[in-house]
Amino acid sequence: MSVRNEEENxxxxxxxxxxxxxxxxxxTMLALSCFVPVGYIALFCFLMTRSYIERKEYEKAKATSRYxxxxxxxxxxxxxxxxxxxxxxxxx
Length: 92
Description:
Blueprint: H1 2-13, H2 25-34, H3 36-54, H4 58-91
């Protein structure tokens, strides 16, 4: 009986360390509405990040999270540049 209790104690003390990985969910949705072509790439990277987190592949999840942030940022700035150039063209 004590051997079983020791095994249970070992299982309880060995906790799985889950790193905090940002998914950039809301940033991806904003990117999708700003500049659609690059926003789809950001959405794909976001979904891959979630998939890797569920499968506990944290290194891959970190990498795709960085890709998500990059593509979302590019999409937002691309959308802003497009809108500003469109307004400038229309005001002339």
